Predict the structure.
Amino acid sequence: SISSIISTSTTICFTDTAGTWIDPWPNGTPILIEVPLVEPPSGQYPSVHHRHANSANVLYLDGHVMNNTMGTRNPPPSWEPNSATLLRDKEKLFDIGSTDQEWGKNN
């Protein structure tokens, strides 16, 4: 519930997103795909798409929008091929921060 959120002005609700897909797994060529949601850093699937002149629009739970220009490249999962990280770098897919704090989670 909204009452369980510590701060609506610092909790991410929506942002520009994209993702990667590898078919066939794990040796196929990764491609950029549309994804309907944003993953927090703990998901190890960077999906914040800095597509607007190297920045992403971020909507916070209180309704304000900010422009994020500081994407974070957190370590990828050990099982993922390096080609996925290379594509994310090229297409500007990053995390926001290195913890899930901005997703209303404490880790």
